[in-house]
Design goal:
The chain is α+β, with helices and mostly antiparallel strands. The chain has ten helices and 17 strands. It has a nine-stranded mixed beta sheet with strand order 1-2-6-7-10-13-14-15-17. Strands 3-5-4 form a three-stranded antiparallel beta sheet, with no helix packed on it. Strands 8-9-16 form a three-stranded antiparallel beta sheet.
Length: about 350
């Protein structure tokens, strides 16, 4: 009888040890999946923060950083070593570029066509005239703007696979799509490597992978384009959230006028309309990035008309009269931050 009691105690002890080991393993797994690995750096003319969760997060975050820096090296319009710089200074000759650059350029041209030129990747001569690439800002003469407008037009770009040719004097600037496109590429890379939770912040270009490690939605701040504050919070998961607005880069001319960095490809002048900012929410970061710029160029009414014609993304428009226009899903996921409840809220139907 005593032997049976001893054996029973040993058995219970073994079971307890197994349960403790299983509990420790589960806890270790939980900690590993919830552990945040973060890298921050400056690239693509903005501050970038990559937050990756999981046991391989540190390695993957570092590799993602290297991939982004490599993309910047290919696509910078100001780096003499980049492929875009080579195309821009080709003097009308055909240039062979990498598959990565060819794909981005092809995507940019498709988005230019889709938006009827509101987004135009050949606008760089005009950006140079206003001094935005070098930050040596100035107000160019009307004659200079008209001269440079003759060099703009996405339909003039000749691309056959990896081969690109620009007319002499034309230049590419892929900045309106590059961050969103790069974020989408990095998101795909992380997902393919088993990442289920990550937040990629490429300077108002947000890529959310899955949900937060605890299963809750990501909370994305939407900036007030009329001040320094955050107007509200968007709850989301597995989506890109991209915001464009003239407040991001601008200068005040000697004439005392505000000049934003988003130019109208049709006129060559900075956009002046009723919009303070445009936020596009969707599955593809590159598309969201391109649309956020194009819709800002269009203005509120045309932007809403564009959404009604397509309806494959969600939209938040903040106008200068302190009204927030939102599509249904964006409206249901958005809440005003403290102090902004008095702003008008309108549903886009």
């Amino acid at each position: 009888m005593r032997g049976s009691v001893v054996r029973g105690r040993k058995k219970r002890g073994v079971i307890c040890c197994i349960l403790l080991l299983l509990g420790a393993a589960a806890l270790a797994g939980w900690v590993s999946s919830h552990q945040k690995h973060q890298v921050s750096f400056f690239a693509m003319d903005t501050y970038i923060t990559l937050s990756v969760y999981g046991k391989d997060g540190q390695r993957l975050a570092r590799e993602a950083k290297e991939r982004l820096l490599s993309m910047e090296g290919l696509w910078s319009a100001t780096d003499p070593k980049s492929e875009i710089y080579a195309v821009n200074h080709s003097g009308g000759r055909q240039i062979t570029v990498s598959p990565e650059t060819a794909e981005l350029l092809s995507f940019s041209l498709k988005m230019a066509e889709r938006t009827d030129g509101a987004l135009d990747p050949t606008i760089y001569p005009l950006l140079e005239a206003w001094g935005f690439p070098t930050k040596n800002n100035r107000v160019p003469a009307e004659s200079e703007i008209q001269k440079r407008l003759a060099r703009v037009g996405y339909e003039k770009v000749l691309q056959e696979g990896n081969h690109v040719r620009l007319a002499d004097g034309m230049s590419l600037d892929l900045g309106a799509v590059a961050k969103g496109y790069a974020g989408e590429q990095i998101s795909s890379f992380l997902r393919e490597n088993g990442v289920r939770s990550a937040l990629l912040d490429l300077g108002r270009n947000i890529e959310a992978i899955g949900k937060r490690p605890d299963g809750t939605l990501w909370q994305i701040g939407i900036q007030d384009p009329l001040s320094e504050g955050v107007i509200g919070i968007l709850s989301t998961a597995d989506r890109a959230v991209v915001t464009s607005g003239a407040y991001e880069r601008y200068f005040i001319g000697e004439d005392g006028v505000f000049y934003g960095h988003i130019l109208d490809p049709a006129t060559g002048y900075p956009i002046e309309n009723d919009l303070g900012s445009v936020t596009v929410i969707g599955e593809d970061g590159g598309v969201c990035d391109a649309l956020s710029t194009a819709l800002f160029v269009m203005g509120k009414d045309k932007a809403i008309a564009y959404w009604r014609a397509h309806r494959d993304f969600d939209l938040i428009l903040i106008t200068k009269d302190r009204t927030v226009w939102m599509t249904q899903e964006a409206d249901s996921a958005f809440r005003f931050y403290d102090g902004y409840e008095a702003w008008e809220r309108r549903r886009i139907e």
